[in-house]
User: What shape does this take?
Amino acid sequence: MSNKKQTAVEFAVEKLEKLIPSGNQLAIRIILNQAKEIEKEQIIHTWNTRAKIDGILTFTDNRTAEQYYKETYETSN
Assistant: This one.
């Protein structure tokens, strides 16, 4: 059992894959992958912004934004 979180875009992908007619799957898959990449960039940006705001006073997590994203959201499929 995985403790990974699911992003909103991943949730949408999971649900939409079941509804997409097979002829349109490639185009929609490309759009959804672009949305996932944008969402990933937003999560990483937020992590970096939090680190700058909190600084050494309260932000004690030393992971990079990329490490946080991978550990929190990416699955090992």
Summary: The chain has a mean pLDDT of 76.
